[in-house]
Design brief:
This protein has a domain of about 200 residues: Rossmann fold. Helices cover about 40% and strands about 15% of the residues. Strand 5, helix 4 and strand 6 form a beta-alpha-beta unit. The longest helix is centred in the N-terminal third of the chain and has 18 residues.
Amino acid sequence: MSQLVTVFGGSGFVGRYIVRRLAKEGWRVRVAVRRPNEAIFVKPYGVVGQVEPVFCNIRDDDSVRAVLGGADAVVNCVGILNELGKNSFDAVQADGAGRIARLAAEAGIARMVHLSAIGADAGSDSAYARTKAAGEAAVLQSQPDAMILRPSIVFGPEDGFFNRFASMSRLGPVLPVVGADTKFQPVYVDNVAEAAVMGVLGTAPGGVYELGGPDVASFRDLMGDMLKVIRRRRLVLNTPFWIASIMGSAFDLVQTLTVGLVENQMLTRDQVANLRHDNVVSEGAKGLADLGIDPVACGAVLQDYLWRFRPTGQFEELTESARDLKA
């Protein structure tokens, strides 16, 4: 019988790519999510019955223990960018990660991959970064040989970064950003998935790996590259951190006063704190090269999925060709 892996958060942006690769490797994949009915799309990643979404609440021991039963390996992709209700940074990224590692160890599962983030720092002024660091520590306490992956901004067809700003660019002549000079090292989602699968298969040793693509660029320059791809001319306007903090606090307050009915999907005060720091691979850190993975550049992929944000969408290139002929 083929081996079984439980992937927590396997229907998310990065998780689905990990699940697809594991299925191709012949593994049975149990996708542990909060809403299995919304994760049905993962089932065709394998043959009938090979990939199954199941319910799990990582804040509950019994729920986690149930989906770990019979598994040979575990992958944790669960993370949040905004606290909402009981899903706080501590509950999800620190306690939740530790719970998965502890119960996996109790179940005799010795192979674990944990998705963290570049910038994880116990001393950070960002709760997101602090709890990422706490989650790593909790995982390593129970699973000392675990593979910890710290990606920079992850890009790909379903990403919430380039897609979001490309969509915003359609609203007017100005594209506001916070931390325009902050540097990022975008990494392709399938490169992250490939690294995670190597950890599951045991073809790469455990430890901390910081994952970044071949290019380092400022937020402003990344937006410039994106605008070129979608054929739009916009003024990339930097929003000062002090103004962004006020905006983030206001949006957070609205979410609090509405008891979460109006979720802050715009900008949080914690995100502003994160944007004050560069998000690039540390000097001397192990990364994709140590895993033998050739990183994919943004320029090779963005046009494959951002074309829908062009003025005439899929017909933009035809329009440009016609314009050239007239000229």
